[in-house]
Input
Amino acid sequence: MPLIKYYGSNRPGSIKEHVHHEDPGHPCFQGSHEAWVSVCRACEDSGVPRGQWNARYLEHILKSPYKGMNYIGGVGMVDGDQVLPFDLAISSEEYEELKRGILSANEAYSNQLIATRDAQNDPNRRADPEHEHNRWRTRVWIESYTELTHHVAYRVDQSCHAYARVRQYFPNGMTRHLVDLYHLHERNIGEAIYDGLERAERLVDLLALAGFGAASVCEVVGTSPSTCREGLSFEIATLQARIENSPVPIAPEDLENARVGEADHLPLRLLREGLSAKLPTGSLASFWNALERQADDQARESGSRRVVRCRKCDDEREVGWDIKKSFEALYAAARVDADFDQQRSLRGRIQHGDTCLGSLTPSELLLEVSRLQMTAIVSVSKRIGLLPQTGEYLMAGVPVSIFDCTIQGDSCRVEPRRFEVGTVPSVLPMRASRNQGRAFRAGLDLPPKINPLVLPPVE
Output
């Protein structure tokens, strides 16, 4: 097996994994992939059969080599005597010397990239003045398959822009960014943090699409004013408060009567997603989708059609299944007083990307979620035969802790101000609600532990 020096070619058994750099002037620059892609694209556009692409690639390398081929791609070994025209057989001494040089250059280049990234990571940077005028800054950690440029504005919507402050890399290819979202909200900070979370979710929606992969908000640092002044008190809001529910005992016989048919998987899955959602808006959308699936099935089974009247000729005609009538039947069966048109409008605004907290308070939104949750639990439970009886319990929203802060020099005074958690009566399977030992507790651990990253920059 001859040892070779190659110029970017993809050789089996080589140390190509050590040869990858973005800098074209680097002696270890890898140029074969870009050259191969360009040749294949040209062959495909001109209708060259796929079996001839390798020959065209070799012809391209020999006649008009990619500029990266002027630099060493790497060293390795090949089976037999198959040394290509653009490879060079070398001695074992040359092999070891070149290999040491490549590894050393890679290490230096990698250290340079790390140093550059660490120098750019700066959580204390400020935003453009026009974005700081949006009043609130919500800071979150997000994970995705994207890489955001440091300290430049990414448009989330008309009244919200995001700035990446810190970037971290994971071995699986994902990145973790500390992101500041500057957003406009006219109400108090206790509601502004909900608005900031909605904007953060919208940002990761966009990143998932742009990066063709998973994206999520993995930690909420908190919400604060865009800036503060030394010696003047300001508020910050966090989600560090806790809600605790005692577990519901489930015995093996509790699931004996459950029967999940072919058409029942989706409503059951959507119900679970609604009960597990982090935000009320996510819960509402999932509960609605679970009910919509059931309402569609019921309308088809009963043959209930929706009839509309033409405004011009006054004739009536059928335009599809009467989903509204089925929804109202589901509301009635669960003894829920809900307005279909209002719920549908709210669901549409949520699933089409509009923010709801501009017109609804968190408590009002939680009430609408509770109505849909009651209906969904009753209907799905009866459908699969699992705990069809129901009882009341207390449904809670996301707890928000609000603190008064004052920055003076290098010190920061933090004092708890208030604790907010929206609650509304909701529904729970009877076996759980009859459990007298079931407890609900909400509160804040003292003394408070404030993440310094939540503090805004001082003007």
